[in-house]
Amino acid sequence: MDYIIVDLEATCWDNDFNIDQMEIIEIGAVRLRQESEAFNILDEYSTFVRPVVQPVLSEYCKELTSIQQSYVDSADSFDVVFPRFLYWIGSEPYGLCSWGTYDLKQFEIDCMRHNAPFPEEFRNHFNLKALFAKQRKIKRCGMKRALQILEISHEGIHHKALSDARNIAKIAVHVLNEVTIQKER
Hints:
By secondary structure, this protein is an alpha/beta fold. The protein has one domain: 2-Layer Sandwich (Nucleotidyltransferase, domain 5), CATH 3.30.420. The protein is built from seven helices and five strands, in the order βββαααβαβααα. It has a five-stranded mixed beta sheet. α4 links the parallel β4 and β5. α5 packs across α7. The radius of gyration is 16 Å and the shape is globular. The two termini are about 20 Å apart.
């Protein structure tokens, strides 16, 4: 089975805002497959998404994510990008993985906003943040802290979807290895 490690970036503001106003502006994903006893990265996916509710990115959002207005202005909207992402995932069985549940919820919101069907396969979701905390018997922590606990260096730009997906994949190898060992017992 493949594991699709996904990370999203979305529109955001530094003051009060409604989560329903947030829109995906970047999708980053890594495909992991367990072969024998090792997990291997097979493929990566990265794309920007043009927001439609509030198409102008806030200064806070640009600073946090390093995503510039021109990147999303020249991107396709979610209703065009999402089918491409699903095509990249393919029809083989997979588990969708993310650090927490935010990404899954944001996919649901954007699917509803664009009248796109929410894939049933996404319900086979692995909350890596919760699994990591449970396995380590610690409080839930951020991705960077989990990397420190595992003594793995953070690479790339934090809050850049593909960089974060790559880093989460490093943690996923440890978390999913324990999950598959438990299934074999």
